[in-house]
Amino acid sequence: MPKMDKAASSHRNSVSTASAAGSGARSSSWSAKDDETLITARAQGQNWNQIAPKHFPSKSPNACRKRHERLMERQNAEQWDGIKLDVLAQAYMDTRRQMWSILAAHVGEKWQVVEQKCMEKGLKNLNQAYRSAQKKQGTYDGQHDDSGVAISDLDEENDDRLPDVPEASVQLDYSFPMQARVPSIQSMLVTYPSQTFQQQHQPPN
User: For residue 149, is it left (φ>0), alpha (ψ between -120 and 50) or beta?
Assistant: First the structure.
């Protein structure tokens, strides 16, 4: 008998625990009225620590914040599916050529090509390419700026200076042998007078 009472008590405890869990799950759900109350309270300038205990005692301030974020995202998406998208499309087509021509002038391409590439790559890929380019430009020690001098121009200047280096080295290489072959003035003064003296005092044949 005691064992049966213990089993029955354990069963009642498990049922009550499940019931409490179920009530907790129900308290975490949001009704349409709750959403309206949440949006109104937030629009009035109340913070999450004020909204939660006042309007939703069973919910945490963080839960209220996350719910409000989802509601705003949904509302914004619905607006862009309607009138906002129509207004954007009309404004885009009116300023399309002017807008893309500014960017095309920087890259030296037709504005239609620039528009197509940007649409094709997307903002995420463009951001990645931008960061990669910045890392590469960091190796040039700040040479890439708005001065209007491109890297190719700097390369051409360096190429123009390269012939000066071997030309100078060639002059140095040839100068040493030339000095070795040409007799010095002192050797000429010593050699030539002695030869002249010998010729003058040589007995006639």
Answer: beta
Q: List C-alpha distances in Å: 9 to 2, 3, 16, 196, 205.
A: 11, 10, 11, 142, 155
CA dist 143 and 149 (Å) reads 9
Flag whether 56 is in a domain. Answer: yes
Distance CA 42, CA 61 (A): 12
**Structural domain includes residue 43:** yes
Between 85 and 182, name the one with better pLDDT: 85
Separation CA 145–CA 58 (nearest Å): 58
pTM: 0.37
Number of domains making up the chain: 1
| Residue 14, pLDDT above cutoff 80 | no
pLDDT in tens, 24-53: 444 569 999 999 999 999 999 999 999 999
d(Cα 50, Cα 61) in Å, to the nearest integer? Answer: 8
Among 59-68, 146-155, 169-178, 196-205, the range with the most confident prediction by mean pLDDT is: 59-68
Could you tell me the sign of the dihedral formed by the alpha carbons of 9, 10, 13, 18, in that order? negative
Rounded distance, CA 139 to CA 151, Å?
Answer: 12
Q: Is 141 part of a structural domain of the chain?
A: no
